Amino acid sequence: MKQTLPIRPKGRPMDRHRRGLSKWVAAVTLTLCFGIPGFAQNRVSGTVTSGGDNSALPGVSVLVKGT
């Protein structure tokens, strides 16, 4: 005796829509979290010299006020 099994659809259309929407929201969230801080950084370049003889100071750190 053969038994037939009902064919189940791969998901309701609304479930597929929600899955696609949640992937899109996750992609936008990751882009905002990791992309925007990269644009907010400015590069500071130059040479730090001593006040007495204007020689370059090796290994100094620079802190920009107001940041």
| Strand/helix succession | H
Helix and strand content put the structural class at mainly alpha
Low-confidence stretches: none
* Amino- and carboxy-terminal Cα gap: 79 Å
Radius of gyration: 29 Å
Name the average pLDDT. 81
Number of helices: 1
Task: Describe the global form.
Answer: rod-shaped
Percentage of residues in helical conformation: 40-55%
Main sheet properties: none
Q: Tally the beta strands.
A: 0
Mind explaining what this structure looks like?
- By secondary structure, the chain is an all-alpha fold.
- It contains one helix and no strands.
- It is rod-shaped.
- The mean pLDDT is 81.
SSE order and pairing:
Elements: H1 13-39
Summarize the structure.
The chain is mainly alpha-helical and 67 residues long. It has 1 helix and no strands.
List keywords for this structure.
mainly alpha, single chain, rod-shaped
